[in-house]
Write a sequence for this structure.
């Protein structure tokens, strides 16, 4: 199985940028498609972005598609989420997830492995 560890979260002001990282270990990362999800206080976890095994195919939720970019570097066993023009409504714990399929899914239940999350807080 693969282990996932997120980093890069923090407290920022509206309009700022952050880059989240998710480092995978334990198995060959290119055997997995991967995704970012987030959970805001009092809300259900929601899909943010996903990419296939190579990163050449990706999909972003409508709420972030003009501001966030998912990418991955399999040589570093790392996935990224570049977040630009952050807004207070982006405040959440961000989780990376992986599944042993080359194609991604936008469904939380389709992912087998999860990190513990990294907190992103955006002040107005």
């Amino acid at each position: 199985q693969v282990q996932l560890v997120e980093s890069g979260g923090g407290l920022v002001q509206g309009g700022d940028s952050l880059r989240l990282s998710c480092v995978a270990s334990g198995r060959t990362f290119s055997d997995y498609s991967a995704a970012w999800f987030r959970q805001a206080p009092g809300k259900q976890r929601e899909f943010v972005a996903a990419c296939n095994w190579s990163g050449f195919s990706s999909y972003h939720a409508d709420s972030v598609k003009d501001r966030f970019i998912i990418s991955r570097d399999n040589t570093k066993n790392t996935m990224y989420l570049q977040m630009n023009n952050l807004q207070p409504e982006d405040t959440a714990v961000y989780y990376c997830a992986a599944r042993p399929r080359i194609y991604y899914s936008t469904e939380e239940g389709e992912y087998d492995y999860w990190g513990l999350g990294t907190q992103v807080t955006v002040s107005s």
User: Anything to note?
Assistant: The radius of gyration is 13 Å. Residues 8 and 84 are 13 Å apart (CA to CA). The chain has a mean pLDDT of 96. DSSP finds no helices and eleven strands in the chain.
